[in-house]
Amino acid sequence: MSIPTGTLLVTFPAKQASQTHRLQMAPEKLPAHDVFTVFSNGGNWPTQGLSFFIGLIGSVYSMFGCDSAVHMAEEVRDADVTVPWSMILTTIANGAFGFAMVVAVVFVTPNIDEVLESPTGLLNYPYMQIFYQSTGSKGLATVLTAILILSAVFGIISALELSLATASRLIWALARDRGLPFHRQVSKVQKGSSIPIYAVVIASMTAAVIGIINFGSTAAFSVVISLSVSSLYLSYIITEAFLLYRRCTGGIRSRNPRHSMPNDGLLSPETLTWGPFHLPGAFGIAVNAFAVCFGIIVFVFSFFPTATPVEPETMNYSVLMLGAVILFATLYYVLRARREYVGPIVETTPHSVERTVVALDSK
């Protein structure tokens, strides 16, 4: 991985005997020039450029997921404006705070190899060593570690709730569109609460099974979760590429109140219309093209292992898992779904989705 190295001087005021002193932390420090210009090829890759792109995946992993708001769009008021702004502001906030934290960490880590080879580093908890060597106090390092653990616990709980809500809505929406096995049962919504209970159960049970895998084999667990970057970015690339194609060919109509959705609630290429939130003209095409190119880079390098030489325990099996998922989806579509799946169904009026599905079932 490609990691800049350096240290940071951290000070805070302390009052003692009616005098103000400053407690200096992280006594070992390097010039800021080294922090932002010196890179470490920790994966032993042939070139620094290759190491940079492979190390980029770590940053990508911590930043993706802003599209979670899209999956909840059907339950958000003014979703065509609220959802895009939530995605943009979330990305900006996470990027700013994340960058500040990364800079602080690398500033107070003058020797990355020493941290990784420390007792806590060998246990995959290098941040404990960073806290200790930065403060010089085991007590203060323990307090900082406890704060980090508590933050992680609350963050994981929130992430699990959001992931469950997102996954269940995706399962329900695809089942409603007749794109999943047993779609008639999965697409049912509980009366009164309007909760897709079957979709929630499927998402919960799937997460539980994946968690159980970790008890038997950490390698198998890594194989499953390795799909996260590659599969998400493949979905991004596909949608962004089609949008870029439509932009360049003029296949999206300008926003006009007279243009309304068809009465049957089915989307078609002729009904694509710009929403109230979009970037028009050449600037929008440039941003769209950059997104496609960046997505392709991330997608390709998401299949690389983190370091060389590669062993069975360190191999990145995401390409195998993604291939298996694509093969299953293709076979299901060819054998059955192509006779049932007709495209996304949108709600144009209250309960219109239910009437549309019933109409399709009767065909």
Counting DSSP H or I runs of 4 or more residues, the number of helices is: 15
Residues in helix, %: 55-70%
Mean pLDDT: 78
Q: Which structural class fits the helix and strand makeup?
A: mainly alpha
Please give the number of β-strands: 4
Distance between the termini: 55 Å
The major β-sheet equals: 2 strands, antiparallel
The low-pLDDT segments are 1-23, 349-363
Spatially, the strands of the biggest sheet line up as 1-4
Please explain how this structure is put together.
It contains 15 helices and 4 strands. With 363 residues, it is mainly alpha-helical. Helix 7 runs antiparallel to helix 8. The longest helix is centred in the middle third of the chain and has 39 residues, at 138-176.
In summary, what is this structure?
The chain is mostly helical and 363 residues long. 60% of the residues lie in helices and 6% in strands.
Secondary structure elements and their pairing?
Blueprint: E1 2-4, E2 10-16, E3 19-25, H1 32-37, E4 39-41, H2 48-63, H3 68-71, H4 79-107, H5 112-116, H6 119-122, H7 126-135, H8 138-176, H9 183-186, H10 197-216, H11 218-225, H12 227-249, H13 281-301, H14 318-335, H15 352-361
Antiparallel strand pairs: 1-4, 2-3
